[in-house]
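EI: anyone free to look at a 155-residue chain?
SC: sure, send it
EI:
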Amino acid sequence: MILWLLTRKKRIGRFLATMWLWIIGLIILISTINWLTSKTVLDKKDYYGQYIIDRDYFPGIQSDWQYNHFRFEIKKNDSIYFYVTDKERTVKVYKGKVVVIQYSESARLRIIMDQPTHHILTSNPTTYRSSWSFYLVFNSPKFYNVYFKKGRWKQ
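SC: here you go
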């Protein structure tokens, strides 16, 4: 830059301008890639909604059966309703409360169920975040890991 200021040659000026355009473009590109691939940061309102079994994670007969028999909903009043179903028909409802803990960048979910409760809800879920979504995994003594994602149940 000092050389260009002393000589005022156009060739050096074009080279400096091109170099700075490349640097700025590279910074924008890296920032965009970082934004697109960074994990979702969750807060309390992100957990509200209906959840269904994630059949894409482990497709097959077992996940299809679980999909038709288990789903839950977290409401804005911090309550959870776990539904044991037979497709559309609700067989039993387990109720409880949710507490959202914000001890790190992303909020975590803690569930306090009325007793007795269903075996899927005996432990708090683990939240797995991706770039654009998240899913909850419950450790069931009977089914091991049970994967839930946000969504509405469909026939």
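EI: The mean pLDDT is 87.
SC: 👍
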